Amino acid sequence: MTSGTRPEDGTLDRRSALTVTPAENHHQRTKRTLQADDGAVIVIVAAKLPGGQAGTCPAALDPNGGRCPRGRKPEDGTGENRGCGNACLIMSNYLHRELPNLSTPAWLGAIEHGNNGAELPLREILAGSLYYPACGLNGTPVKYCAGAILSFIYADYGITKAEYLGNLNGTGEDSGFRGYHSVMQREVFKEDIVPSGWKPSLTPACAENTQRLVRQEAGCQPFGHWSVWDRDADREAAHGPERFSFLFFAGEMSAIYQGLFCRLGIAPRILAIIQPGSGLGGGWEQTESNASFFKKVVTSNRAGMPEYLLYGGFGRGFYEEPCWREYRGQRLVQLPERYAGLWRFNVGV
Hints:
Layout: H1 28-34, H2 38-46, H3 48-51, H4 86-98, H5 106-109, H6 122-126, E1 130-133, H7 140-145, E2 151-155, H8 161-169, E3 180-188, H9 190-193, H10 207-217, E4 223-231, E5 243-250, H11 253-264, E6 270-274, H12 293-299, E7 308-312, E8 333-334, E9 341-344
Parallel strand pairs: 1-2, 1-6, 2-5, 6-7
Antiparallel strand pairs: 3-4, 4-5, 7-9, 8-9
C-alpha cells in the first residue's frame, strides 16, 4: 500500500483492503448493544449506507431512544468518525438526496457471466465513475459509494499484479468484495485504452519532479484488470447494488487520468484522494497540493473537474477542509473510515 494502516481507526488492513467488510470500530458498540451477528450488522448499518436509506444510524436502533451518546444531532453535521452513529444517518440522508442509487445501466447489465473476453466499453465505464489514484488496496470508496456509483477506477503504480489478483480473488475472509462474486474478469491492455503511439500531452515541467517520478516508477509492473461483480443471491438489496464494475491500473495517476478522462473529454463524478502517500509513502509529489502536477492535469480536462472530492487519510483533525480550493464549502458527508469527507465542486471559487 502507499500508506500505513491503523486498524484502530476503522481502516482496512493490507489483506482486507479490497474487501467490503462489515461495520468496524465505529459500530462495535452498536454490535454489542444489538447483539446482532455480523450479517445483521452488515444489513442494518454498513450495507445500507451506499443505498442512501434514511434511518440506518445505529443511534436510531439504540435502547437510549435513538439519542447520540455524545449529544450530537444529525442535522448539525457534527457526527464523529467513531463512537457516534449519527455520522451514518447524515451520510445516508445526504446520499439519498444528492447521490441516489442508480439502476444498472444497459452496458453493465449486458455483460454475460463468464464472458472474460468482453469488449471494454471505455466511455461508459468512465461516465459517472469514481477515480481513486494512489489507492493501494483500500476498499473504502466501494464500501460507502457503491450504489450511487457503479463504476470504480483505481490506479496505483506500487501494486504488483500478484498482490492485486491475490487480494481480489483470494479465498480467505479478507479477500474480494464481501457479499459479491465476480461474473467477468479480463486483463486490460494499452491498446484497449489509448491509440497506438499515444503519449500524455502534459509532463512535469520541473526537472527535479521528473527525476523523482522516474525513480518512483522504476519498480512499477504495468498492468490493467477489469472485473464485474454481482451481489450474492443470499444478500438483500440493502446490501448494495445488484452489479458494479471495477477497473484497476498499475500506473502513474496523472498519466492514467490523461489517457482515460482527458483524452476522451469525460470527468469522473467523484475523485478520491485518500492518503496518497507522498514522500516515504511512495508518491513522487504531494498530490493534495493546489500546486501539484496531478491537479494541473485534472484541471486541464475540457470536461471540467469532478463534481465531488472524497478527501481523507490517517490522523484526526487533519482533514477538516478539502485539499483543493475548488471544493471549499460545507463538508457534505463524513465517512466513519479514514476521516474521509465529501465535498462538492464550488463553481464560485
